[in-house]
Amino acid sequence: MSLHTAPTTDTTAVTSAATSTRDWLIASAAAIVALIALYAVFMDHGTVIAATGDYLHEFAHDGRHLFGAPCH
Amino acid sequence: MSTPVLPLLGRGLAAGGAAGLAAGLFSLLAAEPLMDRAIRAEEARSAHSHDGATAVQHHEELFSRSTQHAGLVVTAVIAGLALGVLFAIAYALVHRRTPQAEPWRRALVFSAAAFLAVALLPGLRYPANPPGVGDSGTVGDRQALWLASIVISVLGMLLAWQVSVRLSGRPAPVRHIAVVLTVIAVLAATFALPGNPDDVPVDATLLWNFRVLSLASHAVLWGVFGAVFGGLGLRAAAHTATAAGGRPDTAVVTPSG
Q1: Digit-coded pLDDT (tens) for A19-31
Q2: pTM (2 decimals)?
Q3: Total domains, chain B
Q4: Are the CB atoms for B190 and B125 separated by under 8 Å?
Q5: ipTM of the predicted structure?
Q6: Chain A neighbours among B 61-90 (CB < 8 Å)?
Q7: How far apart, in whole angstroms, are the C-alpha atoms of residue B228 and residue B21?
Q8: Domain encompassing residue B83
Q9: Considering the domain boundaries, does residue B152 fall inside one?
């Protein structure tokens, strides 16, 4: 019995470590998307995300002022 | 459960969406009349000045005011979702040893810290200005300063947390006073940054009301966020306890840290 238990435990540990790594990779990707979203909404003036021109900035204009982000 | 980060991410998104919507609707009702007034005052100022043509340029009518009103709510929801993600990850890292413990109290404490870090402390250093304030020539500098004040405040919250952890053997009053003094020191540190270079040519009452409403919107966001995040945490803890065969309330009760 104990001969079988030991490898099983090891496999579980490896699997959970892999799951953990995968979950933290997903979390890191989500963090990057979140930072880009915050940049787009509060900082971009059409210089970095060039395709948006001033549209993004003007659409988010009131939110920027209200939440204290510097605006033109 | 080996990694609680994904369930926490889900909670962060749900709480962030709800909080952003609440803050967006609150500011739509409470602050938009002020912003409309500020924009009309700015247009009047521009019309009277000699270089009116250039001054009025930066409120080019890309969108109607009603579209910008909707934009405020959309902006708030996007910001809420994004902040929810970052909040969940920070929460998972800070509480990685005991991720399930005390979901309600921790959510409230963490939300209060987030409010201080991204809203109150930066807002005291660089208070929000209504439309019509802000020189487009200085916007890059002002963004850098604003970001710096947020970075200082976020690092300051980590410092306050470490102070609390290091003093965990001391009586609660010593610990709490030390944490408050740390937060005050962090606020003082943000004042080492140079001030906002722009003139604020608006009515003082309007300015005060706008700034109060700006902080109130942040407070609505983080208040709703903490309540939803904590409530979902309580529910998850109850489910875990039920699944493990225990009574729902046993998982929630853990010694305070």
Answers
A1: 889 999 999 999 9
A2: 0.87
A3: 2
A4: yes
A5: 0.87
A6: 62-63, 67-69, 71-72, 74-76, 78-79, 81-83, 85-86, 88-89
A7: 13
A8: 5-130+203-250
A9: yes
